[in-house]
Write a structure and sequence with these properties.
The protein is of the alpha+beta class. The protein contains four helices and eleven strands. The chain has a seven-stranded antiparallel sheet, with helices on one face. A hairpin with a 3-residue loop joins strand 6 and strand 7. Helix 1 crosses helix 3.
Length: 198
């Protein structure tokens, strides 16, 4: 028997179910009950082509942190934790080691608006480097771009793992306080719309 978690899940266009998720050696198994009896969904790791954490409320299950597992044949399964807050990040991290496919890479940009005249101060903070080890947080690449009006932080790797770990790291929150006087407005995520590689 593999590691199990209490979850809610939903396949694309299907009903929502609650039960347990088991990460076995070759497959992910979801089992629960509904009015008609036992329901189950089995996902072979060989069929996993990617996964990501749902950021929009429309993608989440019942407003909870949700992992979207993308499967071959344009199928998908949404998985949300029932009680434990860190389940989504933990399942994503375990999938990275269990899936037969290459580790999926997700790229996210965080756009931070700057107050007028704060570009030099932002560059000075950036020269100190990140207040974390990118490898420890599951990142493969991390870049920052600066203009007169904004700073764009680009994270490449497994953001679900990064987000779960960042929430528990006090050094990052301490560093974030240094940015507060520089920020003008609300930070926002920018999703990747196009990519090219030669």
């Amino acid at each position: 028997m593999g590691v199990t978690y209490a979850v809610t899940w939903q396949e694309a266009g299907g009903e929502r179910h609650s039960g347990r998720l088991e990460l076995g050696s070759g497959e992910l198994r979801l089992e629960g009950r509904n009015g008609a009896g036992v329901v189950s969904t089995v996902v072979s790791y060989a069929d996993v082509v990617g996964y990501r954490v749902a950021r929009s409320s429309g993608d989440r299950l019942q407003g909870r942190p949700t992992l979207i597992v993308e499967l071959a044949g344009e199928r998908m399964v949404k998985i949300a934790s029932v009680a434990q807050s860190g389940v989504v990040g933990e399942v994503a991290e375990r999938l990275a080691g269990l899936t037969a496919a290459a580790r999926p890479v997700e790229r996210v940009a965080l756009v931070v608006p700057l107050r007028p005249g704060m570009k030099a101060e932002a560059e000075a903070l950036l020269l100190q480097g990140p207040p974390f080890d990118p490898r420890v947080f599951g990142l493969e690449r991390h870049e920052v771009f600066v203009t007169d009006e904004e700073v764009v932080f680009v994270f490449e790797g497994i953001p679900s793992v990064f987000v779960e770990r960042i929430a528990a790291d006090q050094t990052i929150w301490d560093a974030a306080n240094a940015w507060r006087p520089l920020i003008d407005g609300r930070m926002r995520y920018a999703d990747q719309a196009y990519a090219w590689s030669g």
